[in-house]
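Consider the tokenized backbone below.
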């Protein structure tokens, strides 16, 4: 009995230590933006809103949040539309080597990362005139995550019974109507998961926009944060702390909204 209690106490103490370890950075993120003299240490702040005013005076800060929203939203739309069409086709059309093609795309997307493809990506965007454009950034990021999206959505498409589609066709529905009115509603949890996953992947991406964009007013938040340094080369903690809080807020809001609606409890394409 004593041995069991000791183990439970040690387990609880271990979990508390782990919880504190993860909670301290979050506490710093919440408290430091309101501190008149911010530092890397977590301390009781001298409360002020001057840091937010200073960030608002930066001509590119709020615009960069808008650029990030544009890139994340547009990439999500491209990925969802193309991923849904491709995964449905791979699920319903039996092609020779279909499984090898799917796993090959996933493997190549994992091996050929953004860093490895940096030079050919830049040359390709330059050749088609998409350097320093949001369109080029959106297409590159969508192409990078699309194979994984297709791989994930195919499992949800496979779980949709074909009897649903056959019933819809008896009433005169064509292939596109079957997809939009029958398959997509059943696979909605998977599409919601892919949507938020795509947003997260794009939101924190630094390399692609850093390579392709040149004008300061077109930079997303993940790249603009790199410029928050003083003249002596030190990190400007006032700007960084406030900007970090604003930077994570949209992703948290999207997660809470989708989590409340779907709960992220999936079994194939059917919500549990």
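A designed sequence for it:
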């Amino acid at each position: 009995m004593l041995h069991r209690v000791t183990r439970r106490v040690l387990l609880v103490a271990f979990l508390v230590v782990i919880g504190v370890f993860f909670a301290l950075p979050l506490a710093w993120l919440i408290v430091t933006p309101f501190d008149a003299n911010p530092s890397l240490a977590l301390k009781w702040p001298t409360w002020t809103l001057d840091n937010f005013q200073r960030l608002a005076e930066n001509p590119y800060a709020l615009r960069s949040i808008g650029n990030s929203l544009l890139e994340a939203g547009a990439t999500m739309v491209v990925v969802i539309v193309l991923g849904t069409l491709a995964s449905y086709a791979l699920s319903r059309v039996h092609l020779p080597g279909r499984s090898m093609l799917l796993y090959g795309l996933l493997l190549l997307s994992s091996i050929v990362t953004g860093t490895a493809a940096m030079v050919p990506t830049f040359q390709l965007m330059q050749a088609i005139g998409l350097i320093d454009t949001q369109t080029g950034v959106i297409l590159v990021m969508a192409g990078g995550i699309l194979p994984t999206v297709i791989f994930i959505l195919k499992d949800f498409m496979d779980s949709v019974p074909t009897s649903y589609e056959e019933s819809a066709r008896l009433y005169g529905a064509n292939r596109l109507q079957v997809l939009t009115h029958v398959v997509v509603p059943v696979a909605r949890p998977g599409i919601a998961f892919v949507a938020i996953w795509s947003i997260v992947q794009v939101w924190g991406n630094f390399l692609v926009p850093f390579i392709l964009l040149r004008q300061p007013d077109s930079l997303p938040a993940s790249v603009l944060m790199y410029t928050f340094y003083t003249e002596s080369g030190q990190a400007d903690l006032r700007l960084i702390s406030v900007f970090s809080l604003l930077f994570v807020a949209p992703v948290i809001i999207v997660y809470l909204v989708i989590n409340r609606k779907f709960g992220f409890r999936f079994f194939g394409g059917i919500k549990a």
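The chain has two domains: 2-48, 59-271.
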